[in-house]
Structure formats: C-alpha cells, structure tokens
C-alpha cells in the first residue's frame, strides 16, 4: 500500500464558513443588509437633521431681529471741550477711526465672527440741530432738525439716485464754513430736500455751517447693519415736541457727510461721538456652540475684550448690544421644542432596536437545529459565536457604511461624529444580536428541546421581574410627563426616561397582551371544536402551537404602531393648533379691517369679489370704557342673526341669536353726564341707566340694558348686573352680560363685549371690520374692493406664517418621518414573522394537499392561522396608541411647536388622530391576509404538490 502524502492544501478549509452561509441563504443576507442599511441611514440622518434645523433656526433668529439689536456698538463719548482743538479734530479723522476699528474687530473672538460687509465706523452728532431754512417740511410749523453723520464707505452701501456723492476739499477743521453732504431718498422726500439745497446748521460760537446737498442716495440693504443699526441715517422720524398727545411735531433726519468732513461737526453744538459697529455673522455658527457664542458676546460687551478696547480707543468707551437677548430668545424656543423632538427620536429609535432584535432572534430560532447539532458535535461557544459574528459582520458592516454614507450625502450638515456613532451603534447591534442569542440558547449542548407552545408555557421568574421593572419605569415616566410636561424640561439631558414615556406605554401594553394572548386562543379553540370542518380547528391549533419566540414580533408590532399613532397625533395637533390660531386672528376666512369706519358700500363690493360666499359686518370700538373708568374693553356691534350664523359655522363661540336681541324698551342714553349720577334704584356699582332724573316724582327706570356676549375675563370683572359703557363718541349705553364665550370672531383676544347694533347710536354702528367667508380668497382683490386704507388678513396666509421658524419645520419633518418609520417598521416586523414561518407552512400545505386539502381550504387555513396574532397586534396597537395619547396629553404642549411665538395662546393640545390610529393597524391586517393568500397561491402552483396530492375537488 502506497503511503499517504500530505498535499499543500491538506490543512486549508475548502469552503469557508462565511462564504458558505452567504451562498446557502442569499435572501436572508440581502434582507439583513437592507434592514441594517435603512436603520443606519435613519439613525445617522436624525442628529444631522436636528443640527441642520437648529443651525438654520439660529441664523433665522439673528436675521429676523432688528440690526440695532444684534449689532455690537462700541461708542466713545464726546471729547472734553477743554482738550486742544487739534486733538479733538484728530480723534474724528478717518485714518484714526480706521485703526481703532481694526482694534475692535481684533477683539471679536470665535465663534462670534464679524460681518465686515455690514460692519462700519464713523462719527455722528449726539444732539439734533434745528435747521431754519425755508422750503423744508414743517408739519406743525416747527422747523426740522438734523444730525450730522460721517460713516465710512457710503458709496459701497448706497445707490446714487441723483447728483453726486459728497467730497471733502482740502483739510476740514472745526472752523470750516461749508461742507458737502448726501441724503437718502426717504429723508429727501419727507424733509423736501433736493440736490443743490443748502442747509444752514447752527454753529457753536461761530457762523452757521453751510451743508451743500450734492446727491440723493438709496440704501442698498436698508435692513442690514450698516443702515439698520442707526435707522435715522436712512429714514427720518416724525418726533413730537413734548410728552402731550397734542404736542406739535417736527421731522428729524440725517445729513451724510464724507468721513474726511467729520471734524466740521466740532464747529456745531451737536457734540459728536465716535462709534464702531460690529455686525455679527452667524451663517457658519453652529447652534451647539451657543454657550461659547454667548461667552464671546459677553467678553466683548463687558469682559476682557472691552478692557483692551478701552486701552486702545478711549478709556470711557462702552459696548452695547442686545445680541445676547436674541440668543436667549432662540435658546428658549429651542429648549421648548427639543423635548418634543426627543420624544419622536426615542420612539423611532426604540422601534428600530426592537425590529433589529427581532430579526436576530428569528434568525437564531430558524437555525436552532443547525446550531444545536454543531454544539452536539463539539463546537465551543466562543468558536460558534465567533463564526456567527463573522457571518453577520460580513453583511452588516458594508450595509451600515452604506447607510451612513447615504445619510451624510442626504443631509450634508451637522456634526458627523454623532452620525457615525449612531450608525455604528446600529451596525454593532445587528452584528451581535444573532451570536448573543445563540450563546444564550445553546449554553449546553442538546439535540432537541420540548416544544414550548404559547398557550402552554409559563413565563419564567426572570421575565416576570423584568416586566414588573418596565411597568414601574413606564408608570414613573408617564406620571413625570403628566406633572411636568415637555415644556418644563422633559427630554433634556439626564431626563431621557420622560422622553421614553410613549414607548414604555407601548412596551407595557405589548407585554400585557402577550400575557393575555393564550386566553382568547383557548376560548376560540373550544368554540371551533364543536363546528363542522377541519380548517378552523386546525388553524387555531396551529396558532396555539406557535413558538414562544413569536412574542417578539408582537412586541415590535405594538411598539411600532404606538409610535406611529403618537407621532401622527402630534402632527395632527400641530395642524389643528395652527388652524385655531389663524382663526382666532382673522375671525373668518378673511378679515378686512380699518381703524375708522369703512367706506360706504364696502361690504357690497367685497361680497362681489372672487371666492367670497358671505360677508358679516362688525363695528368694533376698541376704547369702550365700562363704568366710564380708565380701563377699556373692545366692544363689537353686530347683527345677531348673521353673526350667530358665522360663529356657528366657524365653531368659534357659537351662540343662539335670540339671546343678543334687546327688548323693545331698550334704548340708548346719549347723555354726557356721569353714569354714576343715575337715580335708578339698582345697585350703585351697576346702574341701569346713564340718565339723570329729578329729585321729585316717580323714579325713571331708565332704558332696558342691552344683552351682551362677553369673554370670561370681562364677565368675571363686571358680573351679570347691568353696567354703563361709554363709547368712543362720548355716548353711553347700558349692557348686561347674558352669554360668556371663550372666543368670538369679531374681536381677537381674551377681552371683548358683543352687542346688537340696533341698540347703539348710528355713529357707533358704522362697520369697521368685514368678516369674509369663502374659498381661494385674494388679499389684493379684497383690498381693491374695500379701498386702499383697510388692512386685509387671509386665514391661509396667517396659518402659513406660523411655520416660519426652521426649528418648527425640522421638528415637524422629524415627526412625519417618525410616523412613516413607525408604520414601515410595523410592516417589516410582520413580514419578518411571516417569512420565518413560510417554510414550515409550505411543508404543511404540501402534506395536507396529499390528503385532499383544496386550494381554497389551504388559503383559508393560512389566513386563519395568521389572523389571531395580526388581529391582536392591530387591536392592541390601536388601543395602546389611543391610551398613550390620552395619558400623556396633559403633559404635551404643542403650542410652541405649532406657533413658536412667545406668549402665544394655549391652542396646541394633543388629541387622538383617527387616521394615525387606524391606518397602520388596517395595513397590518391587510398585509397579513395578502401574504398568507400569496403563499397559499404559490404553494398550490408548485408541480411537486400536484404530484403528491391524492386528488382535488373542483
């Protein structure tokens, strides 16, 4: 016998484990890759999207604030007149100011950066100077006043409309008698200044300074910091000479000198002061750097930076800005929205983790026999776990990297480290789920185990302890959320338990349903045993003999359905809050309003405008004085029938029209005497008449009071007894509050009175507001119909304006994605469970077809077998979602997320959304039936089944 020779390949593995497993089950590998890639994409995109919305919100907050609030203004007071004139002139020259400006910019520390295109420096007189020249505008007979300003780079920030830009000839000093200047188009129009005008500014112990206007300019960006930090430079103001409302007024404008002419200001009594304006540039400042940004602003405003500026510029220099207040407002808005965002993120993340665990658990259950055989043949636990880890890592790592790359491409903004960490956590979980599950299940070597049916197995003590722990956590989270609410810090750092409250409610409900799952199956099994036919009992027997591991799909399904229902309710609540706020603002589909009476026939012309269906008029008196006192209450005079019809149609303080109809004896007292002098025998605090009677003869009962509809605040303040109200024209009317409503169409706000117009004098019944209902209403058409003076508000536009903040839009998109992801993971969990049971069901149908089972019976068998768990999941998910919304609604305030307006009305309440509750549950049921029917159809079409079956009835 020839000796055996070892070949070079004798010690090498011919078929590696990973390659073999991937070739044997390519479909499973592809499914795992898709699941990991999608989950990693969602996990990585979430922090990137949050960062993007927060950064955009910071930029929008700074951009929307007025430039004079956000600009850091460094100012130096006027120099002491006792200083030499040459020193004071030198301090105002542009080369000196330019060097100091560079010093100020050098003290701006990151993350605060200066927008050099809008930052500026210069000098301006602190005292307005009266210009007595003829031809200038004098609204009340007073001559206008001006300030002299010499700001750098006028040519780069203004367009020349007429004339030329001013120039400085020679060396300008305090004794110079004439300079050139430019004015903006607004200043020229209001003060009646033209090119070539000469304005004489009073001098200080010298002749007036002659200012020749050489050009009229238009600001390139009037809301930018160059012009907006000092609005007077581009727009004049009409100033009242005194504190009295009847005091005369005069125009106050600015004359723009060239920077070289600034020393000429010293020859006037204007007391010029120097300034350096730093416009912030937040286009690249991330929101997570907000603490550092605040620190940089504080250092420049009152910290070490200001000290160094004083050393280089002026010891008395000061810095002022309200940028820190703008940042505080933004941070407050972000802190109120962040808890709601965290609720959505935690919910979707928990569902994704549940589905990943479910996928690994089903894979371990599917390969239980294979892994048990390997352990029986001597495979070690570390070796087995290593092989499974390599197998899953070969699929999960490329899929996770692909998902991360897709997220970075789709959302190229934000901190990539968080995205990498999130995608890495998903990938790691996908890699270790199968090995850990196999290690736990196969700690000891065994070839087979007794079947653990769902209706017969008893939960272990460890499972009971874990479920009770989750129950306690869920109860604590729900109670904390109900007590404190999302607006008081829920979901912030260190408070993740409150953000998990909706998910914990779903998990607890799922555990309860899993415990109760065997009971209905036992009852149905007993009931169907008495029926004829084998399909029903067989299907229920199959459902009852489902492995205990099938409870994991039920957990995933209920958690996903609860998250989808909660997220859908949030998005629906946001829409409802915006609808309500827009309705409260306009009072109808559109509102045409004027401070005075509208033109005659305006209502008829508006009624003929396109899209208008109905017009309700109202005469609103904003300064009605109850009891003739200092407090005022808006009073609306309406036609009760038309107004009640409008309120009922809009569901905005509906009331029966007859309650506002006055009695026939009601009349208006237009006496100018004090209401308190009435001789009525009613309560002295609530007289029934404003007239005065004689001291002898019968007592005049006075006019019957007008019934009024009032807000709760007004009703609480004045009670239900009659009281007099003085109207704007001085007449009086006595009203009695007959109805109380929280809101009314004619008057926005929380204080109002509504009465019948027939009980008021004619001067108080002329319409000031038109409440328009209709579709596709246009503001321009309504304005043309009513005249040019009234303001027009369209309900649809008001609603759209509430979604102005990027923080709101980002949170909305996140909740929409949470709803879609929750529904998608619910469907995915169901598909995984059905695919896991597909081979066993196919084999069952093949065997039963040999015993005469028809195709229709096989289809019914698979559908009936799948329905118990699907029905339980759909019904439990719907009930759990409804319960979660009802339990958590007291602690969820959607007003900030819907309106993002400080002090907004409390209109954002969490309510159940039927579509979010029912549609995912119905999708689960329909998908279950569809997959079972498809599987039965495919199995019935196979040739092997046709060969094995004994016969078939048509």
Q: Would you kindly provide a written description of the structure presented here, covering whatever features stand out?
A:
With 954 residues, the chain is α+β, with helices and mostly antiparallel strands. It has three domains: 22-50 and 331-578 and 805-948, no CATH class; 73-105 and 115-300 and 315-321, no CATH class; 595-674 and 701-789, no CATH class. Helix content is 49%, strand content 13%. The chain has 29 helices and 21 strands. The strands form three sheets. Strands 1, 2, 3, 4, 9, 10, 11 and 12 form an eight-stranded mixed beta sheet that branches. The protein has a six-stranded mixed barrel with strand order 14-15-19-16-18-17. Strands 5, 6, 7 and 8 form a four-stranded mixed beta sheet that branches. Strand 9 and strand 10 form a beta hairpin. Helix 16 (501-516) crosses helix 26 (855-888). The longest helix has 45 residues, at 806-850. It starts with 16 loop residues before the first helix and ends in a 6-residue tail after the last helix.
SSE inventory with pairings:
Elements: H1 17-24, H2 26-64, H3 67-70, E1 72-76, H4 85-92, H5 94-106, E2 120-125, E3 129-130, E4 145-151, E5 158-163, E6 178-184, H6 185-191, E7 198-201, E8 209-219, H7 225-228, E9 237-240, E10 249-256, E11 272-278, H8 290-302, H9 304-312, E12 318-320, H10 323-366, H11 368-376, H12 381-410, H13 416-441, H14 461-484, H15 496-499, H16 501-516, H17 518-528, H18 535-544, H19 551-586, E13 590-593, H20 602-607, E14 612-626, E15 633-638, H21 640-650, E16 706-710, H22 712-718, E17 723-726, E18 732-740, E19 753-756, E20 769-774, H23 779-786, E21 791-794, H24 795-801, H25 806-850, H26 855-888, H27 895-899, H28 914-941, H29 943-948
Parallel strand pairs: 4-10, 6-8, 15-19, 16-18
Antiparallel strand pairs: 1-11, 1-12, 2-4, 2-11, 3-4, 5-8, 7-8, 9-10, 13-20, 13-21, 14-15, 14-17, 14-20, 16-19, 17-18
